């Protein structure tokens, strides 16, 4: 089965940077949208960055200009460069892929396990 494994979370001071990565393994025919979600304490999970198979990228206003999402299709990975981190960026970060597992298949949603990002104050 398809699995998404995240890496790169941790603790960083305000103003610092972190890089997250998410690798998909398993039966993958192709991947449609790739995205990043986060869930801050006492808040709902929110989509803040996504990139389509064609490379079109959209960011939420809260991260625009600070975060950069990149696809690496040959490796079935999506990465996230986070700069100028703020306390309000603290939360659990989840990658998300829409994966087509076979020629006749429709896309299915897969999620990473989540990784904690904590910005110290």
The percent of residues in helical segments reads under 10%
Order of helices and strands: EEEEEEEEEEE
| Low-pLDDT segments, ≥5 res | none
**Average pLDDT taken over every residue:** 97
Number of continuous helical runs: 0
Taking the sheet with the most strands, its summary is: 7 strands, mixed
Structural class by SSE content: mainly beta
> Hey, roughly how much beta strand do the residues contain?
over 45%
Query: Based on CA inertia axes, which overall geometry fits?
Result: elongated
Total count of strands: 11
Gyration radius, in Å: 14 Å
Measured between the Cα atoms of the first and last residue, the distance is: 40 Å
Helix-strand layout with pairing:
Layout: E1 3-7, E2 10-13, E3 18-25, E4 30-39, E5 46-51, E6 57-59, E7 67-72, E8 77-82, E9 91-100, E10 108-111, E11 115-120
Parallel strand pairs: 2-11
Antiparallel strand pairs: 1-3, 3-8, 4-5, 4-9, 5-6, 7-8, 9-10, 9-11
Walk me through what this model shows:
This protein has 121 residues and is mainly beta. The chain has strands spanning 3-7, 10-13, 18-25, 30-39, 46-51, 57-59, 67-72, 77-82, 91-100, 108-111, 115-120. The strands form two sheets. Strands 2, 4, 5, 6, 9, 10 and 11 form a seven-stranded mixed β-sheet that branches. A four-stranded antiparallel β-sheet has the order 1-3-8-7, with no helix packed on it. A hairpin with a 4-residue loop joins strand 7 and strand 8. The chain is elongated.
Descriptors for this entry?
121 residues; mainly beta; four-stranded antiparallel beta sheet
